[in-house]
Structure formats: C-alpha cells, structure tokens
Amino acid sequence: MQRTQEKRNFVRWRLQKPARYKLPNQEEERMALLRDISFLGAQISILENLRLNEKLDMLLEIPDEENAISCQAKIVWQDFVEESGKRHFVCGVSFTRIEDKDKEKIFKYVWSTTPDEIRKRWWDGAK
Predict the structure, then answer these.
(1) Is 5 a domain residue?
(2) What's the pTM?
C-alpha cells in the first residue's frame, strides 16, 4: 500500500517510544515503535502487514510504561520500507477513541521533551 496524499489536520511530533497493540478478538499483544504523534493519530513501525481500516487496541508508552495511554485506532495507510537493513511496515493510524486526559498527556510529554519545536511550529503557524 502506498500513501497517496498528505491529509494531516494537526502537526505531528517526532518521537521514538515503544507501543503495544492488539487486533480485535485476539489476546496477543504485539510490539510497535511509535514514530510520531498528534492529537488525532500517529505513525508506527510494525513487523506485520495489516489491512486498511484494521482496528487496533493500542497502549502508547507516553510518558512511560506505567502511565501509558490506552486508545483505539484504525490503520489509514501503510508502506513497506527497508531502513538500516531491516524490513518492516510503517503505518499511519487515526485514533478512533482517545480520552481528553490522554491528549493532555501527549501535549505535556511533547512540551517537556521538545519545547523549542512546539514554539517554532506554533509561531510559524501564526504568521
């Protein structure tokens, strides 16, 4: 699957954090790497090929494993890539259920780790 057109409504912030996900009606958790995030969605790296619109129960380790964000998402795009000699899938997910308190966790985490990036993007958007 190839991404055809950029349709993001919110700025995304780059990060490298662990995430876990489960497919519907399955108990087995699978690992993912959270590559970027916004209030509406994220980009993850995974080892398996998933279908477009596949639903996921996700646990995003922001700010850490003990205070992880629990949410639901669906796959909106997926690309097969090879980086540093490793093959995997990079997916865009759209959050279908995420609580406001968890959106606040995202903002606080991003603010604490990349405040200059937030200021730059905020002011660049105001011009």
Answers:
(1) no
(2) 0.80
